[in-house]
Amino acid sequence: MDRKPKASNGVSRRRFMQIVAVAGGATACWQLGLFGSGKSLQSARRSLPIMGTVLNLAVYGPDRDRCEEALTKTIGTMQGLEAKLSRHMATSELAILNKTGLLHTPGKDILQVVAMAADISRKTSGAFDVTMLPLLLLHEEIRGNNDSLDSGRLAQAKKFVGYERLVQDGAGLRLAEPGMGVSLDGIGKGYIVDRGVATLREHGFNNVYVEAGGDLIVSGLKEAQTPWRIGIRNPRPQQEHKLVSIAVSDKAVATSGDYLQAFTPDLRHHHIIDPRLGFSPPELASCTVTAPNVALADGLATALMVLGKADALDLIESLDGCEAYLVGKDLKACNTTGFFS
Description:
The chain is of the alpha+beta class. Helices cover 36% and strands 21% of the residues.
């Protein structure tokens, strides 16, 4: 699941510039002419650090001031959600849950994200599990030495993993036992992006683009009623690879990859961990998922990395409105039947 920096005040200026330099999803979109050149429309765009990555927004409308106002309100909404769902902000609901094991009156947003996460966990037979935080923290701690992970420490961390033990009791939310921990990194970012688009629509803007760390949704169409085109990042940019792009409209796109937060130079160990085994999955380098909303695409992209090619394709083919593009560590790609249609 996507890891956020431990600082509670976002990313540093240096980190921000590093992220901008490698933000493949956003860069590809701009290079492909994602935003069009509508002569009759005014546009407003913003980029800023959020959720440990870079948030990029663009909106088109007849009045530039109204575009700017809508972006300001949308950013406020998204930052407010980050303050609730980030495990790195000490006062967030999630941080309190992890510290105390109990939220007496959780807000509707964290309840909704937890419910969505549980649904994805059931669909993926536990390949996606927001309670895998103890495993993630253990691998982060021994970064660079993950091959020599002590079996006793691994077994101890695995004892605290199990999405069924994140329990909603009446109005409350609790962890079944001390030592458990939750990370919403693999779905919360997508939820926040979804809410950003919803805010823009509430202000009357339907031709919009909202992206954070490669997880994005586009709404409406470009000028001349043509769909947006989204570029898919090569997981090994040092190796020559043809740029792959897809045409989308009113659809979410999310990518997970072993290159995003690597723990070892060979990319064998990274931030995506199989919660059932305790190690990073060995088969895939990246997974791109299209879905009706970003939270679902975000969670599924992580789960597919864990499942591997065969099970991933079987799962996505069974889900209405979802498609996937998978790249193996050997850079051989495959996709579901409707991904490019």
